[in-house]
Amino acid sequence: MLALTRKTDYALVALACLGKHFSAAGTGLASARKIASEYSLPLPLMRNVLKQLAQAEIVRSARGVRGGYSLAVDPHCLTVIQIIDAMEGPFRFAPCVDGLPVVDQVCPIEHICPIREPIRRLHSSLRYFFGQLTLADLLAGKTQVMLNPLTITNT
Amino acid sequence: MLALTRKTDYALVALACLGKHFSAAGTGLASARKIASEYSLPLPLMRNVLKQLAQAEIVRSARGVRGGYSLAVDPHCLTVIQIIDAMEGPFRFAPCVDGLPVVDQVCPIEHICPIREPIRRLHSSLRYFFGQLTLADLLAGKTQVMLNPLTITNT
DNA sequence: TGCAATAGGACTGATTTTATACTATATATA
DNA sequence: TATATATAGTATAAAATCAGTCCTATTGCA
What we know:
The structure is a homodimer.
Chain A: H1 6-20, H2 32-38, H3 43-55, E1 59-62, E2 68-71, H4 80-88, H5 116-132, H6 135-139, E3 143-146, E4 151-154
Helix pairs in contact in A: 1-3, 1-4, 2-3
The first copy, chain A, binds a DNA duplex through helix 3.
């Protein structure tokens, strides 16, 4: 299904929450419990999501009683593709897209596949698009993100 | 996972195959067996894929000995979103996107969700993008499809 | 120093995707 | 008209992914 998973969804919520209170001083610590309750999301799930984001070094974690998570990077530098990659594994538009971890193996019919090139281009375009889009863009409430009417040029 | 399923992948291959031989006269009949063997894809799968495309009236079917499938619509009019919708159910960028069949129910926190609006906009943008993109675009080997550098306008 | 609150890691159950099989129906052709 | 070949529909099994739970380790604080 060409859709984000629920975990990625939760990750965006959590990061949006942490991002709101972000400053250069590195403030904005919040526990999984706090975030989950603030948005009425299941706590165990939110825990897993934040753990995964910590492993990807998108958030920093602090253990212990007054522990929690905080953004490890500036929201202007954190792109949606990084978040997707962290939560779902490397983004791929289709099963057959080349790039690091191809699902099974190399496509056995790549030399005659009629959709290989178009798929490859769409993959690149989408990856570029989500690689440009930052958490800060999402956070700016008045931000209108738009894909321009697509350009089709004969080259 | 933000990716097309394998079935959609196969559907694109099949449609590309049928589209190559498309003409106003409505030629280009090919059986599931022929398409599967031409691209070394599992026959039972290709059967299911074509059945689904037939139910969505994207291809026409002809039973019997010299039967098979042919495109039911001009490749210039068949959009990628139609193909995705037919194979995977209505496209949605995230689980929480509104539009017809929301996954479970209405989002219980929509009034405070920090990512609702951005997600909604991305969903619309992507849907528009894939709704503009036709099979003919994919088929034209020299077609370069590009998302323009995204535009962020403060409104 | 014990307790309560926190993150970390491993594990399990549920859902979706992928793939196959079987039966029924239609149809061209020998 | 018998037969071979095709789609239509339905059911089901296997695999992969996703969603959710449980237990352990760490740490601040009374």
